[in-house]
Amino acid sequence: MKEFKIVNNIEEMGRAGAAVIAAAIREKPDLVLGLATGSSPISLYKELIRMHKEEGLDFSKVRTVNLDEYVGLTADHPQSYRAFMNENLFNHVNIDINNTHLPDGMAENLDEEVAGYDKLVGELGGIEVQVLGIGPNGHIGFNEPSDEFSNHTLVVPLTNETIEANSRFFSGADEVPRKAITLDIKHIMQAKQIVLVATKNKEAILREALQGKITPQVPASVLQMHHAVVVVFSAEE
Ligand code: GLP
Asked: How far, in whole angstroms, is CA 95 from its chain's centroid?
């Protein structure tokens, strides 16, 4: 790990995370940026939008690869991760939407879809900077606690804990899809740099992930082995 920053609140967390991303885009305008959903990165995306509008941060050549998508939600479903990304970032910056990639949760053949996603990431040359949040059970992307660290994009059944945690975005737990497609741990670990944002409510799991045993039962613990992770922790939820 490289850096652990504690900041006062969510806005500061967003600013600190976005500063890393913006510096990388300025250095390499066609950066391959790995993106995450969930509530944690929203302030980071807000700050990137502000930097685009007020400071001319240019997304015109940036390529993005999202970590995951629910299986069974159409792209225009309000809770699909495609809709989340459009709403929270893509619609507000000058990115070419054709350069933004998420797994297709409606693909008829999921085996082909996951193989195709691996191929796509390979063709892009891998992820250069990856944004991450952390799930309450230590998941990253939708890599749930498991017996092994995943090494290719995969379809995963969501744990009850994740279904419960994410039900706040749906009308109830019954509405939450039971499966998702997620980029694997290996691809995440191959990112040249990682920015993980987490708020106060994740303190215990973050501590376990960063200071506890490295185990696929706490997927984020693998980050201890990455040499360029910046963790930004907000002391407020
Ligand atoms: C989802 C996403 C994760 C995210 C997690 C935490 O399950 N697949 O990528 O990190 O939620 O979300 P939040 O930041 O809303 O707690």
From this structure: 18
- Token digits of residue 2: 């490289």
Rg of the chain over Cα atoms, rounded to whole angstroms, equals: 16
Ligand 1 centroid to 39 CA: how many Å?
A: 7
Residue nearest to atom 11 of ligand 1 (CA): 38
pTM above 0.90, yes or no: yes
Give pLDDT, residue 187.
98
Q: Is 41 in the pocket of ligand 1 (CB under 6 A)?
A: no
Q: Ligand 1: distance of its center to the CA of 212 in Å?
A: 21
Residue 156 scores a pLDDT above 90 = yes
User: Would the CB of 134 count as within 6 Å of ligand 1?
Assistant: yes
Query: How far apart are alpha carbons 89 and 42 in whole angstroms?
Result: 9
What are the structural domains of the chain? Answer: 3-234 (3.40.50.1360)
pLDDT above 70 as % of the chain: 100
Q: Is 97 helix (H, G, I), strand (E, B) or coil?
A: helix
User: Would you say the CB of residue 138 lies under 6 angstroms from ligand 1?
Assistant: no
| Mutation choice for ligand 1 from 40, 66, 69, CB with most ligand atoms inside 8 A | 40
CB within 8 A of 148, min separation 6: which ones? 216
